[in-house]
């Protein structure tokens, strides 16, 4: 059964290999794509897929859409060091969410002031890259198809 992973933010799709972090760039966490929000000052980050919000941190969350597979959305690179600054959670870990539902509101100023990358990797955990079809590099709007599984 095919699953569509939507873009959680509006921006420009870039290959995971261009993410300035080797863990993501080498797909060590899993395959996927990334989105550069450009000059956006604030982002409403939405659920890319329906499922259970199994992990929620200010800078990252995982939604399990299958018992054996989840989708990681990581807001920026090394943004864990911001200790939540600029992030407002709109959901709670453990809850069921629908694709497009608001999860985090992100004020990017804190990340930019700390000179952190604001690129957003979207990774399918426990997936083989051969099973994925990725959106082409270029502009994308929140809710548009970013990754297709199967």
TrEMBL record:
<dbReference type="GO" id="GO:0016301">
    <property type="term" value="F:kinase activity"/>
</dbReference>
<keyword id="KW-0762">Sugar transport</keyword>
<dbReference type="InterPro" id="IPR011055">
    <property type="entry name" value="Dup_hybrid_motif"/>
</dbReference>
<dbReference type="InterPro" id="IPR001127">
    <property type="entry name" value="PTS_EIIA_1_perm"/>
</dbReference>
<keyword id="KW-0598">Phosphotransferase system</keyword>
<keyword id="KW-0418">Kinase</keyword>
<keyword id="KW-0808">Transferase</keyword>
<dbReference type="Pfam" id="PF00358">
    <property type="entry name" value="PTS_EIIA_1"/>
</dbReference>
<dbReference type="InterPro" id="IPR050890">
    <property type="entry name" value="PTS_EIIA_component"/>
</dbReference>
<feature type="domain" description="PTS EIIA type-1">
    <location>
        <begin position="21"/>
        <end position="126"/>
    </location>
</feature>
<dbReference type="GO" id="GO:0009401">
    <property type="term" value="P:phosphoenolpyruvate-dependent sugar phosphotransferase system"/>
</dbReference>
<dbReference type="GO" id="GO:0005737">
    <property type="term" value="C:cytoplasm"/>
</dbReference>
<protein>
    <submittedName>
        <fullName>PTS system, N-acetylglucosamine-specific IIA component</fullName>
        <ecNumber>2.7.1.191</ecNumber>
    </submittedName>
</protein>
<keyword id="KW-0813">Transport</keyword>
């Amino acid at each position: 059964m095919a699953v569509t992973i939507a873009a959680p933010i509006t921006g420009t799709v870039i290959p995971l290999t261009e993410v300035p972090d080797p863990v993501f760039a080498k797909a060590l966490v899993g395959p996927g794509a990334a989105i550069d929000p450009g000059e956006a000052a604030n982002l409403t980050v939405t659920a890319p897929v329906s499922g259970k919000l199994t992990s929620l941190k200010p800078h990252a969350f995982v939604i399990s859409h299958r018992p054996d597979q989840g989708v990681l959305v990581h807001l920026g690179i090394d943004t864990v060091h911001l200790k939540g600054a600029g992030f407002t959670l709109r959901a709670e870990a453990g809850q069921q969410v629908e694709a497009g539902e608001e999860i985090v509101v992100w004020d990017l100023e804190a990340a930019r002031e700390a000179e952190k990358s604001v690129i957003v990797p979207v990774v399918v955990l426990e997936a083989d890259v051969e099973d994925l079809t990725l959106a082409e590099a270029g502009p994308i709007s929140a809710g548009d198809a970013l990754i297709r599984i199967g």
